[in-house]
Amino acid sequence: MKLDDIRREYTQGGLRREMLDASPITQFEKWLKQVVDAGFPDPTAMVVATVDAEGQPSQRIVLLKQLDENGFTFFTNTGSRKAQEIKHNNKVCLHFPWHGIERQVIVYGEAKPLPTTAVAKYFLSRPEESQLAAWASQQSRPVSSRKVLMETFHSLKSKFAKGQIPLPDFWGGYCVVPSKIEFWQGGEHRLHDRFMYQKQADGTWQIERLNP
């Protein structure tokens, strides 16, 4: 296989300044709806990039669970690597790779912990198996085998067989408050269209075109 021969043209349309909404959140919602309507799998999947105390970046895919003018919300085990890195440095980057429609969105911002009431409300809305999985997994820590993990899962299933599954004290969520959001549309001959929204001191957003 020759990796340098793998390429394709981007032909699904350009992006112009007059096509953009003044609010990047509104613009994001428009694009997300188009991805959902097109039937692409995992439309809310996003890469979350964090940095550890030594400056080593790490990435993982999580699901966007809420979106409003405050920012982009996801939930996780607070003992996980991502949560520990956010505790050290809450500046994160989100990436939505919507290859099927030749688009990407990149969000730069700060991850703010959600209040327990918001975390509990979402946790209780999850399927029971997902709630149990949150209890069973010591996320990012070594485990000797899948068998051990499943034994823990089934043990917890028996323990919580009657009544509501409680919120683990090691489970939380974050709202990524954006300072910059980039919208990328693939273009012919690698002349892609890129627009960056940057938040101003007065709360408005400045938009500028970037070179591809």
Helix-strand layout with pairing:
Layout: H1 24-38, E1 45-51, E2 57-63, E3 66-68, E4 71-77, H2 81-88, E5 91-98, E6 103-113, H3 116-125, H4 128-136, H5 146-159, E7 171-185, E8 193-199, E9 205-210
Antiparallel strand pairs: 1-2, 1-5, 3-4, 4-7, 5-6, 6-7, 7-8, 8-9
Helix pairs in contact: 4-5
Pfam families: PNP_phzG_C, PNPOx_N
Cofactor: FMN
Keywords: Flavoprotein, FMN, Oxidoreductase, Pyridoxine biosynthesis
Helix content: 25-40%
* Shape-level CATH architecture: Roll
Let me know the CATH homologous superfamily: Electron Transport, Fmn-binding Protein, Chain A
β-strand amount: 25-35%
The helix/strand class is: alpha+beta
Give a count of the beta strands, DSSP E runs of length 2 or more: 9
Q: How many H/I helical runs?
A: 5
Number of domains: 1
What is the CATH third-level topology name?
Pnp Oxidase, Chain A
If you compute it from the alpha carbons, what radius of gyration comes out, rounded to the nearest whole angstrom?
A: 20 Å
Order of helices and strands: HEEEEHEEHHHEEE
Please state the average pLDDT score.
95
Cofactor: FMN
Pathway: Cofactor metabolism; pyridoxal 5'-phosphate salvage; pyridoxal 5'-phosphate from pyridoxine 5'-phosphate: step 1/1; Cofactor metabolism; pyridoxal 5'-phosphate salvage; pyridoxal 5'-phosphate from pyridoxamine 5'-phosphate: step 1/1
Protein name: Pyridoxine/pyridoxamine 5'-phosphate oxidase
EC number: 1.4.3.5
Q: In words, what does this structure look like?
A:
With 212 residues, the protein is an alpha+beta fold. It has one domain (9-210): Electron Transport, Fmn-binding Protein, Chain A (Pnp Oxidase, Chain A, Roll), CATH 2.30.110. The chain contains five helices and nine strands, in the order αββββαββαααβββ. The chain has helices at 24-38, 81-88, 116-125, 128-136, 146-159, and strands at 45-51, 57-63, 66-68, 71-77, 91-98, 103-113, 171-185, 193-199, 205-210. Strands 1, 2, 3, 4, 5, 6, 7, 8 and 9 form a nine-stranded antiparallel beta sheet that branches. A hairpin with a 5-residue loop joins β1 (45-51) and β2. α4 (128-136) packs across α5 (146-159). It is globular. It starts with 23 loop residues before the first helix and ends with a strand.
